[in-house]
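Hi again,

Forgot to attach this to my earlier email, sorry! This is the prediction with zinc ion bound. I've pasted everything inline since the attachment limit keeps bouncing my files.
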Amino acid sequence: MLTDVLWREGWLKPLSIESLPNDSCSVCKKDFENLDFITSCEFCDIGLSHDSCCNSHLIKSHIDQIEAKIEKHKEKKLHSFQ
Ligand SMILES: [Zn+2]
Ligand SMILES: [Zn+2]
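Structure tokens for the complex follow:
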């Protein structure tokens, strides 16, 4: 059984909380605190959430899309060997 990991690409981009569309996490509803890691979901527009909250949101709400992505990636890999 192959193990697939999900690499979320990104670089850190400091932002002040005043410039954000929402100042609390869309997933756990807690206010963002100093030096929290935040991100947005690539599959829907729930708004900003903690990085770790977004990871569980992705697995919970978008597992089908993620599996589709994994399949697509595997197909691509197959083709590059030909
Ligand atoms: Zn959260
Ligand atoms: Zn989402």
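The chain has a mean pLDDT of 92. Strands lie at 38-40, 48-50.

That should be everything now.

G.
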